[in-house]
Amino acid sequence: MTESRKNIMATDLASLISSRICHDLISPIGALNTAIEVLDDTSSEEMHEDALRLIKLAASQASAKLSYLRIALGSNSTSKEVMNLEKLKFLTENMFNTDKHRFYWAASELKLEKNIVRILLNILILATQSVPRGGQIAIEIEEKSKQINLVISATGIKSKLDKQTEDALKGNMDSEELDGRIIQPFFTGMLINDLNGQIKAFETDKNIIFDISLPIDH
User: Fold this and answer.
1) Of 11, 5, 20, 13, the residue nearest 180 (C-alpha)
2) What 3-state DSSP class applies to 102?
């Protein structure tokens, strides 16, 4: 474990993760507030139908983000609770704009333990961020006798692996450098480290690759 992972206090970690969650939720919550203000304005009744559509959309987005982030950044569980592939796909497609990002799953109908699911969901956040203009995200999941491999590749215009993200994943930064933006990859690295796993994040000519190996017990 790196010194930065050892030195960060639980209260600081909780505060930074809370900041990250608030950042992700502020857009749909703000849209809800705006739509409600329109409904309250009796002088703009012709806009009420649009406001109701916005409320439905924003509420759906907020719910999807909460469901996703509750698992990705929420409390851990020591139980052997599992999640199937269909639930993973549902969470992912509701969380992200699938008109902007297309997801391709190369995996059998296996079930993943929640601690591995948390890592995968966090890596998918990083993958979408590495193709900010949109693109394709390919997810490969392979389970061997005592190991599971997750390979996520992102392809898109202006794709880039952010240097701070890479350092945060590896824990190669001082705890004082952490903020609400960079805490998520730092936390992802902590999750992988806690499971005695390994991650390689790198760029090729066309793709951003996140390659994770995790030991598993049967």
Assistant:
1) 20
2) strand
Structure tokens at 194: 């806690």
- Decide which of 3.55.30.10, 3.40.50.300, 3.30.420.40, 3.30.565.10 is the CATH code for 3-215: 3.30.565.10
Q: Decide: helix, strand or coil at residue 76.
A: coil
pLDDT tens sequence across 76-92: 655 578 899 999 999 99
**Where exactly are the structural domains of the chain?**
3-215
The structure's pTM equals: 0.91
Please report the beta strands in 123-197, taking only residues with DSSP state E, as ranges in sequence order.
Answer: 135-143, 147-156
* Whole-angstrom distance, CA of residue 59 vs CA of residue 84: 25
Strand-pair partners of 209: 153, 202
Q: For residue 177, how far is the Cα from the chain centroid?
A: 21
